[in-house]
Amino acid sequence: MTQQPPQIISSESPFAGDVFVKRHPALIERLVAVWPFAPGQRRALSELVEENVQGVIRPLPDSAADAGLWRDWGSGLYGQPWTSVPFLWAESFFYRRLLEATGYFEPGPWRGVDPFAPFKQAELAGEAVSAEITALDDVAALADDERGQALLLSSLWGNRADLGFQITAGRGIEASGLVADDSARLWELLRSEAGGTVALVADNAGSEMVADLVLIDHLLAHGLADQVVLHVKPSPYYVSDATLGDVADCLRALLHSKGKARAVGERLREAAALGRLRMRADAYFCAPFDFTAMPEGLRREFAPATVTILKGDLNYRRLAGDRWWEPTIPFAEVTDYFPGRVAALRTLKSDVIVGLETSTLAGLNAVPHWRTSGTHAVVQVRS
Ligand SMILES: O=P(O)(O)OC[C@H]1O[C@](O)(CO)[C@@H](O)[C@@H]1O
After folding, report:
1. Which residues are within 8 A (CB) of 81 and not within 5 positions of it... i.e. 6 or more apart?
2. Are residues 77 and 226 in the same domain?
3. Same domain for 206 and 61
4. Are residues 186 and 109 in the same domain?
5. Quick one: pLDDT at residue 173?
6. Is the minimum distance from the CB of 247 to ligand 1 under 6 angstroms?
7. Are residues 57 and 152 in the same domain?
8. Source organism's superkingdom (predicted)?
9. Does 260 sit in the ligand 1 pocket, CB within 6 Å?
10. Whether residue 276 sits in one domain with residue 236
């Protein structure tokens, strides 16, 4: 494997530092405003904010079922400021601690209650999703290839809907475009290997998941995949990351609509019944590490796939290792460890980036915050 540059530590990146001192406090403020939390939950949440902003990382209480696991995973990191340890690890542990504070894993009324559900539901009921659903009738008039590309781009840009990101980035950010575009290679690959299994590692619920489901339907309906395995998070994570319950909500939104969208929902429901659309929620998707350390079970899932499509920024960070790579290092070189062929559909919302042409990078360097503002995107493929 190529020699790896250092991992991103939040204190070395103004963007990542702000996630702890601005984004997390704002998120917790919103949670406290919408839920009838008891004093103990409120106290745990405000302690978590204090810790993020000016304290040090405390481990999970011993009573937590996975306390031992996290003690090992975080060995050497506890007792340090949140911004002094790898960004990927710290952000992941923040969400585990948040669920601890709300009682998500504990016996009692809060067990299994997704604290982010009100935000996800509002987004699913909002304009972006209804516009997406209406647009399906227009997209149906396009030739197959054009329709496929339109659905791919919709799944890609749907990633900007990420709710955690919008807490501080705000709406109304303009998309500037693709800075690496291997989409033709992706279609070539899907056509030449038609009839196999495609794995799609999902990112966000709501409009992004609706777009993902429509893309999955396209692959199945056109025989580009005989089966699709949809990988989601086993528990609430990074605010809007999709769980199985979110997939069900999105499918229901399609089924309750009219026209083409409803037909998509019906075909997907049938595909699930026939075992052509399968769901996975591996525990590793909420682990604080990159994909180089993925467990054998996941490697076996991905290796035989025609291609594994990774959605979104966080999956990209885990694919590339959340490291200070030279942006022009080839995507294929950085991802050569990944089992099987891999494609990333990602809007740029954090520092890591690989696989850019030198000329593209030169142009981007004149654009403020191009790595983190969500205005640029990549479709990158290792085939
Ligand atoms: O939903 P996505 O595309 O994975 O984006 C989540 C991203 O949001 C952040 O939490 C902050 O932008 C990143 O750290 C993370 O990669």
Report:
1. 11, 54, 55, 56, 57
2. no
3. no
4. no
5. 43
6. no
7. no
8. Bacteria
9. no
10. yes
Co-location of 93 and 144 in the same domain = no
pLDDT of residue 3: 87
User: What CATH number has the domain bearing residue 75?
Assistant: 1.20.930
DSSP letters for 227-249 = EEEEE-BSS--TTTB-BHHHHHH
Q: Which long-range contacts (CB under 8 A, 24 or more apart) does 278-284 make?
A: 278/227, 278/228, 278/229, 278/230, 279/229, 279/230, 279/232, 279/244, 279/247, 280/229, 280/230, 280/231, 280/232, 281/231, 281/232, 281/233, 281/234, 281/243, 281/244, 282/231, 282/234, 283/234
**Per-residue pLDDT, 161:** 60
163 occurs within a structural domain: yes
Q: Is 344 a residue whose pLDDT tops 60?
A: yes
- Residue 130 counted as domain residue: no
What percent of the chain is modeled with pLDDT above 70?
96
Q: How many residues does the chain have?
A: 383
- E-strand stretches of 146-236: 177-181, 196-201, 225-231
Pocket probe for ligand 1: among 162, 240, 371, the residue whose CB has the most ligand atoms within 8 Å is: 162
What's the confidence (pLDDT) of residue 32? 98
Quick check: 163 pLDDT over 90? no
What's the 252 CA to ligand 1 centre distance in angstroms? 26
Q: How far is the CA of 98 from the centre of ligand 1 (A)?
A: 16
**Does ligand 1 lie within 6 Å of residue 312's CB atom?**
yes
CB of residue 77 inside a 6 A radius of ligand 1: no
Instruction: Provide the domain count of the chain.
Output: 2
| Residue of the CA atom closest to atom 5 of ligand 1 | 313
Q: Is the pLDDT of residue 40 over 70?
A: yes
What is the pLDDT at residue 2? 78
246: Cβ below 6 Å to ligand 1? no
CB-ligand 1 contact for 24 (6 Å cutoff): no
Same domain for 336 and 213, yes or no, is: yes
Does residue 122 lie in a domain region? no
Q: Which domain holds residue 82?
A: 10-115
Domain assignment of residue 47, yes or no = yes
Domain co-membership, 150 together with 287: yes
pLDDT confidence of 169, banded at 50, 70, 90?
A: low
**Residue that is last in its domain, among 83, 115, 147:** 115
